[in-house]
Amino acid sequence: MTINKLGVHALVFAGGTSPEQMTHIITETKRAGYDVLELSLHDSPSLDVAHARAELDKAGLGIVCSRGLAFSADVSSEDPEVVARGAKLLHDSLEITHGLGGSHFTGALYSALGKYGHALSATGRANVVSVLKDLAVEAQAKQMTLGLEICNRYETNVINTAADALRLADDIGHDNVVIHLDTYHMNIEEDDFVRPVHLVGDRLGYVHIGENHRGYLGSGHLDFTSFFHALADINYSGPITFESFSSAVVSPTLSNDLAIWRNLWNDGPALAIHARQFMANRLEIAHAI
Asked: How far is CA 280 from CA 1, 5, 223, in A?
């Protein structure tokens, strides 16, 4: 029995979201013992929402949806047309998440997912705040939560640290906007794995567990013991989701966005089973002390 609900990212099992792929993803998520499936909405045109919802309900799985934006639909842009396209993409994604039965929509909701050649401008940041204020109100009406996933400098120029995310959430100013920490990104941008968790405290709403190379947990150099102890320090009770990518599973767009060039594993189901046990063990140890 774990303290937190444990989740797994759909790209551990399949790169798309066709009905056949969703059935496979949901079956393997359940088989590996997870409580929650995280689904990236980058392939949402292929997604049959009613079918996926029925399969999730049948499996008794929770759903969290995530996404980043494209440079052509970037709410941190200074171009009003580009910002409007990003706002519509976020609105549509929120609707899909709700339609799937999810109450949590997270990710890089504030920018394109990719390397910027310039710093964020004041106008761009004001556009982010304005769009996410509106989205938060829309989410509140559906009793939904928005997560601000903190990504590294090579994937966004908007928020790279926990302190950045807290400032942005304060400016958005809605209680249903929470912070989303990810150990892969923290390893690049934070000083350690403890102070950011303590800084975010009860505003932490979602967690990604990923190795420094995004492969098998425990095969890299990350200090997961300290991280799980920090989560226990703040009594974090939200979902903890395993995120891993390999060139063995290719998404039509996301694999390129995230620079997934290496084959870090071949057997997604075996990887998922290992990760669940790894996270459950760390949680048990952290809460036993």
From this structure: 8, 10, 16
**Domain residue spans of the chain:** 6-288
Written as one letter, the residue type at 9 is: H
Residues with catalytic function: 149, 243
Nearest to 259 by CA among 175, 179, 150, 184: 184
pLDDT 10s digits, 236-286: 999 999 998 876 666 666 666 666 667 776 788 999 999 999 999 999 999
d(CA 235, CA 28): 30
Residue 71: what are its φ and ψ, rounded to 5°? -65, -25
Cα–Cα distance for residue pair 222/63, rounded to 1 Å: 27
Tens of pLDDT, residue by residue over 104-160, are 999 999 999 999 999 999 999 999 999 999 999 999 999 999 999 999 999 999 999
Q: How far is CA 92 from CA 44, 55, 102, 287, in A?
A: 10, 21, 14, 39
Query: What span, in angstroms and rounded, lies between the C-alpha atoms of 231 and 236?
Result: 5
Beta strand 177-182 with 204-209: parallel, antiparallel or unpaired?
parallel
Interacting residues of 232 by C-beta distance below 8 A, sequence separation 6+:
286, 287, 289
Pick the CATH number of 6-288 from 3.20.20.150, 3.30.70.1270, 2.130.10.10, 3.40.50.9100: 3.20.20.150
Helix axes 268-288, 224-233, angle to 10 degrees: 50
pLDDT digit string, tens, across residues 35-76: 999 999 988 999 999 999 999 999 999 999 999 999 999 999
